[in-house]
Each structure stands twice: as structure tokens, then as C-alpha cells.
Amino acid sequence: MTGVRRFAPDDAAACCAVINAAAPTMDGLNAAARRFILEKNTPDRLGQELDRLYTVVYVQAGTIVGLGALDEAEIKRVYVLTAARWGQENSAANQPAAYRLRMRGRQKCCGAARV
């Protein structure tokens, strides 16, 4: 399967792996902040947080390669593995999750059409 779908609790470990892979390249973080992110990023903790939010995952060939989470109209998290950003499926990896999250936020706060 390739595409965007809603987060399920069983996705938490794969989502942790995506975030952990992104941590070294996150802008504006020092070593202590990166270490903090990696230490608190556990499947149990992350799974509970993502389950509370409107969260989608992007799947390529059966593997979660990205995720995005929305709290009301605010995007809380968007992560995509670097390898998934630059391939044949670039537009699919980068655009739908963020677009769906934006539209979901508009629907919640402004009544826009559902995506």
C-alpha cells in the first residue's frame, strides 16, 4: 500500500523511527534538545499523543515514511524520511499529509469542505 491514512496505535513504533531519523537534521536545535527529543520519543508516549490528535501517516510500499498531526487548526507535527522526499513519489510523500492537515484544520475552524 502507498498513500495517506489515519494513524492507528500499532503505528507508534514506526512513527518513533521516522521522528528519530529526522532529529539529527532538525533546524534550530542544539545537541541537548536533540537528545531530549530522542529520549522522550517512545512508542507508548508518542502513541498516546498521536491518538489524541488528528494524525495521518504516509505509507510507501507498506512502510510508514511520514506523519503529520493536527490539534484543532494547528499543525503539531510533520515528519517525512529524507529518502521518501526525493524520489519518484516526492509529491505524494510531501504534499498530501500537510495538505490534508491544513484542510482538516480549516474544516474544524472555518467549516471548509472535508478532505
Topology:
Elements lengths: L2 E4 L5 H11 L8 H10 L2 H10 L1 E7 L2 E9 L2 E7 L1 H4 L4 H21 L5
Antiparallel strand pairs: 1-2, 2-3, 3-4
Helix pairs in contact: 1-3
What does this structure look like?
By secondary structure, the chain is an alpha+beta fold. The chain has a single domain (3-110), classed as Gcn5-related N-acetyltransferase (GNAT) (Aminopeptidase, 3-Layer(aba) Sandwich). 49% of the residues lie in helices and 23% in strands. It is built from 5 helices and 4 strands, in the order βαααβββαα. The chain has a 4-stranded antiparallel β-sheet, with helices on both faces. Helix 1 crosses helix 3 (43-52).
- Percent helix among the residues? 40-55%
Straight-line N-to-C gap:
20 Å
Q: What is Rg?
A: 14 Å
Low-confidence segments: 88-94, 109-115
Tally of structural domains: 1
The CATH architecture designation is 3-Layer(aba) Sandwich
At CATH level 3, the topology is Aminopeptidase
Order of helices and strands: EHHHEEEHH
Overall outline: globular
What portion of residues belong to β-strands?
15-25%
Largest beta-sheet characterization: 4 strands, antiparallel
Name of the CATH superfamily: Gcn5-related N-acetyltransferase (GNAT)
Structural class: alpha+beta
Output the number of helix runs: 5
What's the number of extended β-strand segments? 4
CATH class term: Alpha Beta
